[in-house]
## 1
Amino acid sequence: MTIVLCPLRALVLTVLVAVAGAAYAEPPSDADIDRLFEVSGTRKMVEDMLPQLERMQEQAINRDAAGKNLTPEQEHQIRAVQNASRRILQRSLSWEEMRPAYLEIYKNTFSKEDILAITEFYASPAGQRLLEKTPLLMRNVVQVMGAKMQPLMDELEAELGQTVQTSPDTGKRK
């Protein structure tokens, strides 16, 4: 007996088989993902974030304390809190602490095939150049976006100024 499928049923069947196959794709192993982390410098990126976060936190604390007449005891307490916070950040966001979360995220996001292909790319000269030049690329993107955003921010500020000057009761300017 020959089974003839109409084109729509054949398409639906093909899609279902493809989706089912993707859903059951072999997950990457920890070793596969660790190799990707190695060639892409993921550990270094995570470790390099800590000093940046510490500086941001210190700047926020200093801004908050700026202009206040703090006693030496209050300054000491602020520094103690800052040091405790730094230790918590270092412990909580260390590579040793973050690696299991990263492994889980990558396993839930990529198949083994994906991880191997991405690793192969990052191990290549082009992939290494991409990794090397990404910080410069991001600085350039931020610079361009800042230039594009400034007129928009000026416009928004002007709009906000008009809104604040308008009385909510009459709609007339104050």
## 2
Amino acid sequence: MNGRFFLHQVLHCDDSPHRLALGAALGTLVAFTPTIGFQMAIVVLLAWSLRANKAIGVPLVWISNPLTIPPIFFIGYTLGRLLIGWPPLDYSWWAALRTPPVGWWSATWFYWSRTVEIAGPLWLGCLLMGLLASIPAYALVFNAAKRLHAGVEVDCDRTGVLPAKLTGERSHRRRPLLP
């Protein structure tokens, strides 16, 4: 496979700075969500629906990996709990898990309510952290892509001539790259 084909057709390095930055922002946002195992699929679907770059977004979900998941989720849960105004879980909360109520419906409702007590603050805090991380990710990638696109245009130009804006000439005539 040709290297130029791979860069431009598979990785879409010739996408607009906005599409590249949006892909980075989506990947960063989803990396902070508690959707382990589905994150790459979520980024691909979001990037497809929002016309963002998928190749940049997918690797960024690896921000959340076995080493970073515990601190991300702990901070996310704590932040969400503080925003909601719920007190921290104490020993009695954990002890109650050992003795669930009797009966199918009662036990189901008991475990569901306990799950919501954890999942609600976790989702809120993780989404807020992801949003706060995705804004600078968008800005960084957008500015970098904008700066690098001038070089990519010259590299991708098959005629072998530099545009006048890069040669310093005022006219729109092109001059050859090599004398």
## 3
Amino acid sequence: MRIAYINFYSMENVYRAGVLITDESTRPVEFRVTSNLDVDRLQEILYGEALQEVLYKERFTVQLLNALQEDYDIVLTKEKSLLSIRKEIDKPVVHIQKYDPFMPLNRLSHKVINIHDRYEPLYITVNKEDENRLVSISHQLQDMYRNFNIMEPFKRVEKALKYIMESEIEAERADLSVR
């Protein structure tokens, strides 16, 4: 199963998104990033707490997924609000998080465990459109989770975004010092 991991990073009011497609052993297949999006103070004030959700859903995710050249089976995200993009793409979107025993279970969610206890239990949720595929997706993720930490690629995307943004800042500073 190929997974498209979507993640986001912000630094000093500059936002960026990245997507990493991995194979069943979490090896990279394709990586794409957005360009920087600068958010000014007025936008922060006007959007308030909704700013990140608006940026992630409306400005980054769908465009980034549509730009991918390689095929993937599911989108894995840590942002629950992205479940709603399922209507705009033709792939299941799966929200994944650490399992909390006090979290209410429902028909759109499933627990994923590592049978060797190497990694902590996870909790996945799908959009209503994929309710009939939940068990299949859960089993496929569980099979991968036996040998690979399926949460780790999120860190790779975040580190890559941070590296790109910091490299661009360093290049700008070097360019300014040359002038």
